[in-house]
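SUBJECT: A protein chain and its fold
Encoding: whole-number codes for local backbone shapes
Chain under study, with its fold:
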Amino acid sequence: MKKTAVILLLFCLLLTVVGCAQDTTFHPLYDKNMDLVGWLQPGQNIFNTDMEWVAYIADGNAWSTYTSDWIGPVNGLVCLDTDGKVVAWCPGGRLAGSSRPTRPNRPNQPDNPGLQSMQSMPSRPSIPSIPSGGWSSLTGYEWFYQ
């Protein structure tokens, strides 16, 4: 009985530590014209330039907080539209599209992360190469609010 309680306690502690280890860093998101369109918290959330919560990420897919619709996959630091074309990217991300992804099942929307502090304006990145699969025809803002 004591052994089970100890194992359960250790499991709960492990879950707490893993939950606290989420990346809370904000990465600047740029469009194909290298204009800042928002901020990405990898694997968690997307905010616009006013730090308003515009999308959440679940199982590698972005979902609009306005419409609850799937807006496309997120591959690391690169956001794709529903056709698999790059719509927004962070420096350091692998700039590549994909074949047309399959629409995933809708997850439960998480709680609003609340007001986030404004981020300082990042320096403009260098011109990226054209990603495999090409650029999306959507702007970052069109993608967020679809």
User: Anything to note?
Assistant: The longest helix spans residues 2-20. The chain is about 15% helix and 25% strand.
